[in-house]
Amino acid sequence: MSVEAKPAVHSPAASGVSGAVVDVDIHENMPNLRVLLPYLEPQWQRHITDYGWTHVRSDYPYWPPTAGTGGLRMDAVPEVGGPPGSDLDLMRGQLLDRHDIGMGVLTGQHHFSAMRGWYEFAAAIASAYNDWQIEYWLDRDPRLRGSVQVACQEPEAAAREIDRIGSHPQMVQVFLPMITHMPPIGDPFYRPMMDAIERNGLQLALHVGQATKTPFGYHRYYVEWHTALPQAGMSEVISLVFNGTFERYPELKVMVLECGFSWLPHAMSRFDQQYRELRAEVPWVKRLPSEHLRERVRVSTQPMEQMTLHQLNKYLELMETDEMICFSSDYPHFDFDAPERILPAGLPESTKRKILRENSLAFYGLTS
């Protein structure tokens, strides 16, 4: 969907299925950084008020055609000003109400785990953001669910934050960007954080972002980089499987966001082939990687390629399941997907329900 396209008018059956849609990737934002000041200790407030800290920096080099609004929808800018996604009432009108979203999972716009250095400040501002997210978003709309933001550069600090906030009834997962200057997510470095995720009964969400490089770094053009992003999702899943994460954490499930799903059949086939050839190197992996993926990994639809019914059915056939794919709108990004438009006509109603609702509810351990 383009930055100027208008969403379809809401109707009770807008999603094409019985009941409300679940959206697993909604990017709420802050109107400005000063909203975090009440949740920060004075020593950290000064980074914003006195030192001029403005955002998480990376060496992301692009200024693509979508950069005028930061890759976000022009119509999502609040009338009072501020970035797209920073006004709950506007989000209700453009997304939750219009598209019959019965449950929406917030994933944020700021990737605190991508901060280089200043790890203590990264942990402090992630914690402040969690408190602000609860007060401004979760407390104001029961349809919303939250993601615990952490600074994974300090796994022990991340674990403390998960223990502090993870029991909130609307928190459903821990959010991490895929950061290519950090160890891959299956590395034992993260075990204190992973232990906390498991003991709090949360899931893990992995999301691409500006700190996600390709194997060759940043390509010359945004379109190259954006096309290659699913490689990051594949790499992180490889790390989880072969480092024995799923054996070590039997309750853990992982949502891979904003990589689409068309890479999965290739990945599952190649994982299994490599495991059969080289399993002696990783004796702690007791099952075929594809079995772990089918049971423990879910992927969001967005950005979903335009597919015919035949093409989508072929992907599902190769994956040997229709329970891995979960709808995501990616609101308010320029390539926003509407639930009533994303799936090809003729898809069985049972499969629609799974993609638009049931797979996500099962992932988060919720009931209809």
From TrEMBL:
Sample GO molecular function, one term: hydrolase activity
Biological-process GO terms, alphabetical: secondary metabolic process
Annotated ranges, domain Amidohydrolase-related: 77-366
Superkingdom per UniProt: Bacteria
Keywords, sorted A to Z: Lyase
Gene Ontology annotations for the cellular component aspect, listed alphabetically: cytoplasm
Name by which UniProt lists this protein: Amidohydrolase family protein
